[in-house]
Amino acid sequence: MYNRIKSRQEIIDEWNSMTFSKNFMFCKVMQEEPLCRHALEILLGIKIDHLEYPVQEMFFKDSAESHGIRLDVYTKDSNSHFDLEMQTTDSTDLLKRSRYYSSCIDVSELKPGMHYSELKKNYIIFLCLNDPFGRELPLYTYKTKCIQDDSLTDDETEKLFYNVGKWEDSDNRDVRNFFKFIKTNEPCDEFTRSLSGQVMIARQNAEYRRQYMTMEMYGTERFREGQKQGLLEGSQQTKIEDAKSFYANGVSIDIIAKSLNMTVDKVMEIINE
Questions:
Q1: How far apart are the C-alpha atoms of 204 and 138, rounded to whole Å?
Q2: What mean pLDDT is reported for the chain?
Q3: Residue 228 pLDDT > 80, yes or no?
Q4: Residue 123: beta bridge partners?
Q5: How far is residue 124's CA from residue 141's CA, in Å, rounded to a whole number?
Q6: H or E element that contains 26
Q7: What is the Cα–Cα distance from 83 to 81, expressed in whole angstroms?
């Protein structure tokens, strides 16, 4: 929701100084398979032989009646599914969000005729700029285990909530360097220098710049119109027409939803009419 009018120059300046920690830039940079794979390896402490091409803003919806979700960066290898989220704002629903995200991934992957045993391991990872649970821990890990005997096999769903602000408390040097870069924008090893370089490349990408400018300029214009009319929402019919126009011009569903202050489900309903 936009709460003030931005000038075109302000939006240009925002783009020219945008860092990796901004959700828009994070999604663009993590599309690069080697960078996404290395980030997952250092976060999870595992070796990944390959990844399918990481998909930004992956949309999942089980049915017309169900609640759709948009994952920041979704990818998988031969054994596991990975959802990587940049959480820039405080939220009280992360646990239930992660539960729903995991279930949506399972539903999308278990095709007719497949057995439950074929479900792969799910990792749901939130990189939180602020402490998500207020316990000042650098990492909160959730797994499903038997209360009576925790040695029994779990259901292979793992939810990790990293408190990026506590980067200095991490026992892993690579994780410390990664999170320091997220918080300070200061690269300090080969990986973070690669991330920094990819941010610079993304800033020069004309299509990315157009998408961001479209989203921000539209939000500002809608706010200006709302001030004049005494309504921040604008007319519903105008929003429907704008949603269709934006989608036809290649704007992502998530950006359309944010710009028009709609849910992703509503945007999907409009463009599928």
A1: 34
A2: 84
A3: no
A4: 82, 158
A5: 10
A6: helix 23-29
A7: 7
What is the dihedral angle through the alpha carbons of 208, 213, 216, 218, rounded to the nearest 10 degrees? -120
State which amino acid sits at residue 174.
Answer: D
Across the chain, which distance is largest between two alpha carbons, in Å? 63
Amino acid, res. 239 = K
State the virtual CA torsion across 132, 103, 21, 220 in degrees, nearest 10.
Answer: -100
CA distances from 107 to 65, 80, 150, 196, 211 (A): 15, 14, 26, 36, 31
User: What residues does 82 pair with on adjacent strands?
Assistant: 75, 123
What is the value of pTM for the model shown?
Answer: 0.76
Q: How far is CA 126 from CA 23, 113, 116, 248, 271, in A?
A: 12, 32, 26, 31, 29
Residues 6+ apart with CB under 8 A from 82: 40, 51, 73, 74, 75, 76, 123, 125
Cβ atoms of 158 and 121 closer than 8 Å: yes
Nearest in space to 139 (alpha carbons), one of 149, 147, 131, 148: 131
Three-state DSSP state, 217: helix
pLDDT band of 114, cuts 50, 70, 90? very high
pLDDT at 214 (0 to 100): 80
Q: What is the pLDDT of residue 240?
A: 81
Residue linked to tokens 């704007």: 251
| DSSP character at residue 95 | H
CA nearest neighbour of 31 among 49, 69, 11, 58: 58
- Per-domain residue ranges of the chain: 19-203, 206-271
Q: Which helix (H) or strand (E) holds 88?
A: none
